[in-house]
Specification:
With 94 residues, this protein is mostly beta strands. The chain has strands spanning 7-11, 17-21, 25-34, 39-45, 48-55, 64-67, 73-75, 79-84, 86-93.
């Protein structure tokens, strides 16, 4: 039996930093939908950058699916993402 339920947040907004969840959580996995241009998704916790994922310049390559091992990445304040040249982000957190 699973230790917790997963929540899902989606954004396609590329105008600034987006709050995906307003509280402490753990990012477990995410899917990035690329565009024809190289792009990035910056994950942040309360305005402090945690890590950046870069995508190649190829929408035809399909989505980038990444599952994070163990307990995932802890976000103490909130889960934020800044999208640049990506069509969308789906984040799975608990």
């Amino acid at each position: 039996m699973a230790g917790s339920d997963l929540n899902v947040a989606f954004t396609s907004n590329t105008s600034g930093t987006q709050e995906l969840f307003g509280g402490a959580t753990r990012l477990k996995a995410f899917i990035i939908t690329p565009t024809a241009s190289a792009g990035t998704v910056v994950f942040a916790d309360g305005g402090t950058n945690k890590f950046t994922v870069s995508t190649s310049a190829s929408a035809a390559s399909g989505p980038v699916n990444i599952g994070l091992p163990d307990e995932g990445v802890k976000f103490s304040s909130n889960l934020q993402a800044t999208l640049t040249n990506v069509a969308g982000l789906t984040a799975f957190h608990a």
